[in-house]
Amino acid sequence: MQVLTKRYPKNCLLTVMDRYSATVRNMEQVVMIPSLLRDVQLSGHGGQIQDGAPDLYKYFTMLKAIQVDMDHGLLPREEWQAKVSGSEDEAENDAAETEEAKEERVSSELYLEDQFHLHFSSLHHILTHLTLKAKEVTRKYQEITGQAM
């Protein structure tokens, strides 16, 4: 696994982001044949397989896609919305926004610091969880290929 070269405080978001990127890069280096991960389920707590859970191949591709977004930035907002909504017209969305929604948006802007802390802690938690998933995908691949140590 790659060693972090930058030094940030332990719970700093940059540390968590670097750890996630390093773990995903390690996963990419270990997983030479991603198709072996198809139809292999990730074990849940206690070694039980979760019903309806995505296979490890989907986790592998998702983890890589998130890392690319983190390293290279997100798509511009318009492109992202077009991709997600299937090219819905943004003008229609703006026209459909009610007066009540506008008031709610203005009042929510007053609590920017609270929103920042909520999103910051959520992002920290999500990246930590995704790092653990990347380690699990790597470990499972090593088990499948007989590389487990």
UniProtKB/TrEMBL annotation:
<dbReference type="GO" id="GO:0005829">
    <property type="term" value="C:cytosol"/>
</dbReference>
<dbReference type="InterPro" id="IPR053719">
    <property type="entry name" value="Lipogen_MT_Stabilize_sf"/>
</dbReference>
<feature type="compositionally biased region" description="Acidic residues">
    <location>
        <begin position="87"/>
        <end position="101"/>
    </location>
</feature>
<feature type="region of interest" description="Disordered">
    <location>
        <begin position="81"/>
        <end position="105"/>
    </location>
</feature>
<keyword id="KW-0539">Nucleus</keyword>
<keyword id="KW-0963">Cytoplasm</keyword>
<comment type="similarity">
    <text>Belongs to the SPOT14 family.</text>
</comment>
<dbReference type="Pfam" id="PF07084">
    <property type="entry name" value="Spot_14"/>
</dbReference>
<dbReference type="GO" id="GO:0046890">
    <property type="term" value="P:regulation of lipid biosynthetic process"/>
</dbReference>
<dbReference type="InterPro" id="IPR009786">
    <property type="entry name" value="Spot_14"/>
</dbReference>
<protein>
    <submittedName>
        <fullName>Thyroid hormone-inducible hepatic protein</fullName>
    </submittedName>
</protein>
<dbReference type="GO" id="GO:0005634">
    <property type="term" value="C:nucleus"/>
</dbReference>
